[in-house]
Amino acid sequence: MRGEKHLLTSEEKNGFNLFTGKAKCGTCHFIPLFNGTVPPSFHKTESEVLGVPASVNSYEIDPDLGKYITTHSDTHKNAFKTTTIRNIEYTAPYMHNGVYKTLEEVIDFYNKGGGAGIGINVPNQTLSPDQLSLTEKEKKELIAFMMTLSDVPQSINTIVRNE
Q1: Residue-level pLDDT at 3
Q2: Which run of H or E residues covers position 80?
Q3: pLDDT of amino acid 6
Q4: 9 vs 118: CA distance, rounded Å
Q5: Which pLDDT score is estimated for 154?
Q6: N or C: which end of the chain has fewer CB within 10 A?
Q7: What is the rounded distance in angstroms from the CA atom of residue 4 to the CA atom of residue 51?
Q8: CA 53, CA 75: separation in Å to the nearest integer?
C-alpha cells in the first residue's frame, strides 16, 4: 500500500486482491484495521450474523444468541462482533464458539455461503448465502495474505518473568 512492492510475494498479493474482491472479506473486515470498526471515523463496530454451526458437521445454528442478549432486537439474534484478522495464525480456534480449528475450515464455511449456504436456517443472516466459488489455489493465496497481517512475536513460547 505504501509502494513497497517487494514486501509481498505474488501469492500474497493475489490473496490481498481476493480479500478485497472475490472473497468479499473486506466487506466486514475493513482495511486498515482488518476488523469491523467502520471507517472513516472508526466510532462504530459492526456485528454480523454468519450462521455459525453448533459443531463442525451440524445443521443447527450455535445456540448462543450473541448481541441479542443486550439489545433484544431480533435482527441481532446470533450476531457477533467482527473481530480482527491481524495475528489470525495465533488465534485458533475460530468463530465465537471455536467450532473451526483451522483457517481452511473457516474459508470453506464462507466459501459455501455461511450457515445458510451449508443448510442451516438463518433468517437474519447478514453474510450473503451465495457461494464464493474460490478454487483451492485461491484459498491458499487468501490464507497467505492473511498470514502477512501477523506480528513477528519476540517469542511465542517463552514468557519472561521477574522473580
Answers
A1: 81
A2: strand 79-81
A3: 85
A4: 33
A5: 57
A6: C
A7: 38
A8: 18
Enumerate the domain spans of the chain.
5-147
- Helix, strand, coil fractions of the chain, as percent rounded to 5: 30, 10, 60
Cβ atoms of 50 and 127 closer than 8 Å: yes
**Distant-in-sequence, close-in-space partners of 52: CB < 8 Å, separation ≥ 6:** 61, 62, 78, 80, 95, 96, 97, 99, 109, 114, 115
Residue tagged 467502520 (cell numbers): 38
Sign of CA dihedral 118, 103, 22, 124: positive
Q: What is the CATH number of domain 5-147?
A: 1.10.760.10
Residues paired with 48 in a beta bridge:
80
What length is written for the chain? Answer: 163
Could you tell me whether strands 47-49 and 79-81 are parallel, antiparallel, or unpaired per DSSP bridges?
Answer: antiparallel
CA dihedral of 125, 35, 144, 138, whole degrees rounded to 10: 30
Residue type, 61: I
- Distance from the first to the final alpha carbon of the chain: 44
pLDDT < 70 stretches in the chain: 1, 153-163
